[in-house]
Amino acid sequence: MKTRLFLFFCFLLCMTGVMAKDIVLTSPDGQLKATIKTDGKITYDVVFHGVQAIAPSEIAMTLEDGRVLGQNPKVAKQLRKSADETIDAVAYRKSKVRNHYNQLTLNFKGGYSVDFRAYNNGFAYRFNLALGKGEVTVKNETAQFNFDEDHPAYYAFTNASGPVERQFCNSFENQYNHTTLTEMTKDSIMFLPVMIELPQNIKAVITEVNQFSYPGMFLENFKHEKSLKGIFAPVPKTMEQGGHNMLQMVVKDRHDYIAKIQATRSMPWRAIALSTQDKDMTDNDIVFCLADECKLEDTSWIKPGKVAWDWWNDWNIEGVDFRAGINNETYEYYIDFASKFGIEYVILDEGWAVNLKADMMQVVPEIDLKRIVEYGKKKNVGIILWGGYKAMDKDMERLCKHYSEMGVKGFKVDFMDRDDQIVIDFYNRMAETAAKYKLMIDFHGAFKPSGLNRTWPNVINYEGVYGLEQMKWNGNCDQVTYDVTLPFIRLVAGPMDYTQGAMHNANKFNFRSANSEPMSQGTRCRQLAEYIIFESPLNMLCDAPTNYEKEPVYTRFLAAIPTTWEETKTLDGEVAKYIITARRSGKDWYIAGMTNWDARTVNVDLSFLGDLNNYNFEYFIDGVNADRRGTDYKHVFDKPAAEILMQPGGGFLIKATKK
Questions:
Q1: Which of 41, 401, 461, 472 is most buried (most C-beta within 10 Å)?
Q2: Contacts of 55 (CB under 8 A, 6+ apart)
């Protein structure tokens, strides 16, 4: 009997050891190692090129009925798979995307599993629910990102103030703070993506992918720890129409849960992009790769391009015999300008619909939309309409059908300014409904992209950036430094509508904010370079047509720059300092650089082109006096020098066309 008991306890001890054994997942190249433990809770840690990127961190989901998925987990099965495939991309920074990973799925008793996925340059995980039919209520989610040291971080707080529940309503536009983890401001929440600086120059960018009927994740560090924790907006309970021109839904109070969801489904991916060199972070495709596949069989009608934009320049054209503003004559002038320079679209921004009505069927009497759309057709220029969230949400199907039949090409949808479950559902309904009527969507007042642009590629742009519009009213910000920070952080998530193209350019001493005659910080060549460095398939020319017409050679070059690409290479760069990016469209390569407020001479290595004698070159560089007069530039048809000087806040752009 004693022998039997001894053997039984030995068996239990062995089984306990097996169950508690570390489960390891490595990347295809072996340089990323994730260790998953299931002893009492589910934790993961990540080592990347020998550096502890993420220290052991807990993941879990708490349901309203008291179940905690991830508490005392019992592994029922392990499944492993590998993939190395090529994805055809629509309206992206490359036409082919390699999706190369190893995946571990742990099936747990209790009707759930967790996918862990290791890329050579990133790691991700997600919960999968198999809890039967109907719905379940999620009270909260535990998503930890722990670190073994007090690392520096780049992060942006929400631009809303006050209690946390008020911070959930924000436009996702703010500049980056740069402190260590323990120096982060207490009681403010961060929106994604967030960058952590690790030893040996390794960078980690935290974001998320596949937000379907589930709130977005913010991060908090209220206790000043070496840790970031996910925090999620609860579902709104009571809302009132209000906000900007009655176009928003103002949350008055919230439920005590974050989502009601289908009991069987996959949850969003929690993703960490990783790089050993700063420049490699800017070309990380983990978000695109993790996103659900494209739902459209025919994408041929999705036409990226340039847009002549009215709002930033305040409809401020000159030299005409009519009062410039929101009227037929002004928009026909914009269409003529777009047609002359080969610009694909004109946008009618806020003001074409009757104010305070939140009704996009009520057009102001100064505008004849059918006339404008037909005039655009004759000139081969498409029309895009701006609309507020509330107006679009209450009448979505009718609006899409009506304006599609009229010939409108898409909508710029603004002022969502939240990412709780209700608004996330709106994004997905908007994408699907617009696709039904062959309409493109540009989301403003929006959170960062999270893969919807792959699933519904008619969602062609997101704002979620502290863009050039801020220059109209904020004279104290450092936009130049921000510009060379966001490619390494915000652009990891996906394309953005930054709205560049200013023709009035100023150094830091001469810059001032102005509404009707706005300007940019930095040089003219910097503005030009942003059309290459900033990924934006629907890309604005923000300034007044008459300002562009004064420089027709420059404007023709600018208007002809592609907005989507077949190949992308970041040649060099350092976060918050400078960046040099190369992109290919057909036989043409465009190579562009930007610097912060430090003048910088950079070596532009064009060896990837092969024999340079096989190319014709055209380039724009900062002029000798661009540090004093930002509009000073030099336009040259010749092979560029190996070293290029960028003036403070400056940039350059080289076009190489194969002979």
A1: 461
A2: 45, 146, 147, 148, 226
